Each structure stands twice: as C-alpha cells, then as structure tokens.
Amino acid sequence: METTKPTILILTALTGGGHLSLAMALQDILSEDYETHIVDPQPGIFRQYYTYAGRHSSRLWGLGYKYSDNEKAALRLHKTLTLLVQQRLYRLTELIKPRLIITTHTLVSYEIAHVLVQQRASTPLVFQFSELEEVHATWLTVKNADAYLVPTREIFTQARAQGINESRLHLTGMPVRRQFLEEYKTSRAETLARLGLDSAVFTVFLQGGAEGAAGLASMVKSILSVASPVQIILAVGTNKQLAMRFSGIARLRVLPFTQTIAPYMAAADVIIGKAGPNFIAEAMILEKPFLATSFIPGQEAPNLTFLERHNLGWVCLEPVAQHHLLAKLASDPAALAEKVNSIRVYRAWNMQANQGIYPVIAGLISRTSQNLSTQPH
C-alpha cells in the first residue's frame, strides 16, 4: 500500500554499531509521521577495513584518523570517497525520492552533498554529528548543510569556530534508541533472575570484544577476584568464540547479540567498556556510571575528557586501577550514588535538548513543501 507519509533517507555506515544506533534513534523519533529508510551506501571494503583495524591494528586506525584530521586532508579524502560512492548515491536518491536526507556518518556527508548539487536537487540535507567532545575534520568540510544536529555544547563551539553559521547549528543532544527511554527499575530483579544472577549482588555490564580475548580474560579474572561479591553480564555480540570461552564461569553470564540490549544494561550497577559515544550516552540515559577501560586511538580519545568533565563515570585504563576502583564501588554505595547524581543532571539536559530534533526536521520538510507548492507547473 502506498504511504502518504513524507520519506526521509537516513544514511549511515555499518562500521561498528554506533552510527547505526544513531540512525535508529532518529528513526524512532521520526517514524510516526515519516517513512524512514536507513541505508549504508558504502562498499563492503569499508566495513572490512574497519573490522580489521579495530581488531588487529588500532594504531593504524589512529594514525589514519590523525593525519586526515585537518581541512585539506579531509577534503582530499572526501573527493576520493565520492568517486567510489556517488553512483550508489545517485541510484539511491532516484529510487527513494526522499523529502529530506540525514547522514549519521562523516564519510557520507560531503559525498551526499556533492551528489545533491550535481542533481540540482532542493532536498534538505541534515548532518547528525556523532561524537561527544569533538568531531573529525571530515564532518566540517561542508559548511552549508541545511541543519546540523549537534549533540553537545563542546561540538557546537567547535563547529561554530570552524565557520558553520550558528543559524544552521541546533544543539539537540545525543539521541538514543527508544528502548533506552523505558523504565527498567521494577524489572531489574526479574532480568537478573532470568540470567541466573542475584539481584542483591553488585553487577557489572561488560562489553566484550573491545579488549581482545586475552585482555578480556584478564579483566574478567580481575573483576571476579574483587573481595566484595561481584557478578558480570558479559555482552559478546555475535562473537561465538568469546561466548564459548566464557560460558560456565561462576557469577558470569554470557549475553549473545540481542536487538534489545537496554534491559540488561539497566540491570547493572556499572557499565564497563570502550569509550564509544553512543555507549556512553546510552549508559547516561539509563543513569548508569560508565567505566572506560579502552578507546579507539584518535577517534574516541576525546570522549575520555568528556566523560570526566561531566562526571559521568571514570577513565581507568590499567587493570590494577580497575580492580581497586571496582572493589571500592562494590563495597561503598555512596561512591556510586555521587556519580549517579551528576549523571541525572546531564541526562535531564540531554533529554530536554532531544526535544528539538523533531521540530528541526519537520520545519525543513514543511518549508520545502511550501516552496514546491509555489513553483509554477
């Protein structure tokens, strides 16, 4: 059946889960009134490179990030990538005929803007910035997108300083998927019981995979050796090797990939893992302190500063320090409560800022509709 809803195309990249989570969060906000399509237009080799670099050479990824993080290098990178994806983008826009386009990935920003110029299209283009402390230079190559959805005050300041007109910048907070906005306090005990865990025991949600198998084994051993009782929900995603390796360990439950991850994060007292912006934001919305134990060089390093500035958790990169911190948290509820109080303050600001996303999108589509209706036939 043909829909009468205006169509929105959300461009993303399946390089890690963060950009897709961001696209899905926007879809949750907009889907009631708009037909939304989430598409990754990049070649499969992009995902292969990201997966390889993330697992085997984070230093390589960090160097690439660093040396492209300036205006000239960013433009060169964009022009090269445009040659690879422009035909896909041409076909995509012709097929879907969107009334508005949003991108949640920096390497589909200049690329789609270029295609729209070539098509002489009047389709509004919106950039959803995807970091917390600062964005890569490739996000700031295009200065004239119709709107920039800016997740934090820090990035608002950066974008303005890089020449983007303030009238195009909208401070709308970091959106998260709808599942993270549900109330889970009353279902915590049930969630833990379903996993065979004790709701009276200090619980950590541990993101598997970021440390590598050897590092993860060391971290699990360290956590479970804390003097006060501690139990672990270990999220392994689709990694069957990790699932097999850590199955059957007392006070640890392996959580394979699930579309609905929020109830399990909400059942924990602390979230532990890599300092990805969406992961930090999801923990914050659930009012859970975040313990950053690793990060992608270059890309995620600034998030450590953000985490500490807003008192949303701790940066603890050394195993011994992690052990001591968890021992303190497990035995001292007041230390945890202090962190939760500051998280609630930031959460309230972010939730209020999120209310601005829908009006920005609706306003652009309405304005375009009015322009189309006044054009001579």
Give a written overview of the molecule.
The protein is an alpha/beta fold and 377 residues long. The chain has 2 domains: 7-172 and 356-374, Glycogen Phosphorylase B (Rossmann fold), CATH 3.40.50.2000; 179-351, 3-Layer(aba) Sandwich (Rossmann fold), CATH 3.40.50.2000. It is 49% helix and 15% strand. It has 15 helices and 12 strands. The strands form 2 sheets. The protein has a 6-stranded parallel β-sheet with strand order 2-1-3-4-5-6, with helices on both faces. The protein has a 6-stranded parallel β-sheet with strand order 9-8-7-10-11-12, sandwiched between helices. Helix 11 (277-285) links the parallel strand 10 (270-274) and strand 11 (290-294). Helix 8 runs parallel beside helix 13 (319-331). The longest helix has 26 residues, at 71-96. The radius of gyration is 22 Å and the shape is globular. The two termini are 27 Å apart.
